Amino acid sequence: MRSALVAALIGCVEHPLKARTKRFLCGLSYDELQFIAEYLGARILESAWGGGQTLGVQRRTEDAELKMILLLEYLGFAGLDSSKATVSRKPPVAYTSQHWPGLAG
C-alpha cells in the first residue's frame, strides 16, 4: 500500500520535479504519506464542488503540526499551490531551534 501511495503522489507532479519529489516521499512513513494523500483528495473534492466551499481538513493527532510541515514540503517539491493548505484551526506553531536543537545555526 505504501508504494501505491508514493506512486499516486508522484503522479500529481510535473515531470521535471518527479525525481526530487520521489526522494522526499520515500523518506516518509505510511501515516505521513496518507496525510498528504488525504489533503490532495480533499482539494480534488473541493474543486469538484466549484471551489467555493472549503472542506477544512482537520486532524486531531499529536503530530498534526509536523505532518503539516511535511505536507507543505511536498507541495513545494511538487510545485503545487500551498496557499490554501489548512490542516488545523489552531494558530501555527513557531518552530525554532528549541524544537529541533540540531537546526541551531
Structure write-up:
The protein is mainly alpha-helical and 105 residues long. It has one domain. 50% of the residues lie in helices and 0% in strands. It has four helices and no strands. It is globular.
List the topology elements:
Layout: H1 2-10, H2 18-26, H3 30-48, H4 64-78
Helix pairs in contact: 1-2, 1-3, 3-4
Tags for this entry?
single chain; 105 residues; mainly alpha; 4 helices; globular
Q: What is the N-to-C order of secondary-structure elements (H for helix, E for strand)? A: HHHH
Mean pLDDT: 76
Termini Cα gap = 38 Å
Beta percentage is under 5%
In terms of structural class, how would the helical and strand content be classed?
A: mainly alpha
> Can you summarize the main beta sheet?
none
What does this entry show, briefly?
This protein has 4 helices and no strands.
